[in-house]
Each structure stands twice: as C-alpha cells, then as structure tokens.
Amino acid sequence: MTGVLRPGHVQIRVFDLEESVRFYRDVLGLVETGRDDKGRVYFKCWDERDHNSYIIRQAEEAGIDFFGFKVLNVETLDKLEADLNEYGIETSRMPAGDMLATGERVRFTLPTGHIMELYAEKSAVGNGLTNANPGPWNAASEHGIAPVRLDHMLLYGPNVAANKKIFEEVLGFFLVERVLAEDGEFEAALWLSCSHKVHDIAFVEHPEPGKLHHCSFLMESWEKVLRAGDIMSMNEVSVDIGPTRHGITRGCTIYAWDPSGNRFETFMGGYQPYPDYETITWDWDHFPQGLDYPQRKLHESFLTIVT
Ligand code: M3P
Ligand code: FE
Fold this sequence. Notes:
Blueprint: E1 4-14, H1 17-27, E2 31-35, E3 41-44, E4 54-58, E5 63-71, H2 74-87, E6 92-94, E7 105-109, E8 115-119, E9 149-157, H3 160-169, E10 174-180, E11 187-193, E12 201-205, E13 211-218, H4 222-234, E14 239-245, E15 251-257, E16 263-269, E17 280-282, H5 287-291, H6 300-304
Parallel strand pairs: 1-4, 5-8, 9-12, 10-17, 13-16
Antiparallel strand pairs: 1-5, 2-3, 3-4, 6-7, 7-8, 9-13, 10-11, 11-12, 14-15, 15-16
The chain binds (2E,4E)-2-hydroxy-6-oxohepta-2,4-dienoic acid (M3P) and fe (iii) ion.
Organism: Amphritea atlantica
Catalytic activity: catechol + O2 = (2Z,4E)-2-hydroxy-6-oxohexa-2,4-dienoate + H(+)
EC number: 1.13.11.2
C-alpha cells in the first residue's frame, strides 16, 4: 500500500460532551488522548498507534462533521491533491495543528455532501506496548468494549455513482461489493477498499446529503463482539441490530447508538480482497440476506435512521 492507507479520523457531533466522553471512554472503551481549545475531545482505539482517530464535539445536532484518510507521506498528499484538482475537485488546506497532533489536511467535499480529508502526518503515540518484545495486550485493551481500531464508515447521501468515480479513478480504491436497486442496474450501495480490508468506506444512495449511517470499530473475535453486546446491555445502550452476520462483506456484527443517536458498529470477520478481485453484486431480491444473512430481513430502523 503506497497511496491512501486507511480511515484515520472522524469528527462526530454529540449533544452532551461529558456524557459522551463517559460513553466513549468507559462503555466503548476508547482511550482519551486530548482536548483542544475548540472544546473537542480526542480518542483513539487501544491498538491504534497515531494520536487520535475519533473526535467528538458538542453541538445541537448529531452527525458527522468530516472524516480523514491517512496517506503514505507528504509527497503522496501533494500528488493526490493535484490529481483531485485535475479531476475538477476543489481542495483547501487545513493548517497543521488545527487538529491535535495532526499535520496539514487536504479537504474537499464529495458529491454525496460529505467533507473528506487526506493527511500524511499524525504523531505516533503508540499502543501502550513496547516496540521491542511487546506483550499481546495491556490494561487499555481490557477497559469497556475496547475495539482495536476504527475500521470504516458507512455514509448516506445523493449521487454515490459520482463518489465511486472519485474513489476509483483518483484515490486508488476498488469496488469490493455493491447492491443493485430493483431495476437491476442502479447501484444503491457501494463498499470500497484502499487496502486488504473488505471495505474502508461504504456509501448508500439517499436523498439527503452528508449523513452518517455508522462508524465501525473492529473487534478481535466473535466472542469479543458478543461480549460487546453484553457490555451494551449492562449499560443500557440502545441496540439497533445484531449480533448477526452480513452476507455483504461477511462481517459479524452488532449496531448500536451512542447517547446522541449516532450509530456505531462493533464487528469482526469478513474476507480479505485483493484489487484484482471481481466485484460481488447483491441484487435487490437478495438484499435481505446481504443485510442480515441468518434472518434474511430488511430492518426498517437500520435502513432509515441516519444522523
Ligand atoms: C456494513 C458492513 C447494509 C449493510 C451494511 C454493512 C447497509 O456496515 O460493515 O459490512 O445493508
Ligand atoms: Fe459497517
């Protein structure tokens, strides 16, 4: 991997900052790594090495402010910005230090209305394990649900076809899976990867721009997904669907809502695609299996509630 590496950060709006800090720190089990003068609170998953991946700020409305993908280095960042501009996408630069421990970010708006960023630099603070002869886990991995990393986002907005072109033609992603609408042609949902992961980002066609369906956090095992469900119930977290398995991506999953109604996913599994794999297609008749393989059910809340 030499271009776009991974989803590196996402900024989420919450109603009550301190209630949300308690939720993300003690229930989801993220590690708080800092607060800035704009009132934002920064978190990372325990096994992530960079300073932050999940940032919250207090607001009247829930949802997503922006998300950022880390790229290999500054040369790659400059090249991708030039490529975006040549493709016809306007970019701007957020200065280094605007986000804690984070270098300059190239920012642009996707056709679906989401603000996306690319950046090359974020301070490595480590995962609490040593680089020489590390142990397999530490206290942070045993606090709350404790996912290992921010894995992907699923976003809702109009014109996902135009997003697909940008991700495939400019950013070097490939289309892993898709869902076709009832007409058998229109691509209603797309799962895209820039890596060996089954997806790094996904989009669903939706009339309203800039909406968040979920941020997803990776667990190490199915047992840990089930334990996440235990912890959700012990803390009276509102759960949407699961534990179950998607046909799409084969991910094994639970979806729940944070105290502000932002959906998040704790999942494991799926397969590891290569860029030369042919895209897997789900037709509309099999979408219930794609969504929930054992139950073969289109869950109304899952398909319609976004922030
Ligand atoms: C995922 C995933 C839908 C399926 C979503 C799948 C919208 O979030 O992680 O594979 O049906
Ligand atoms: Fe997901």
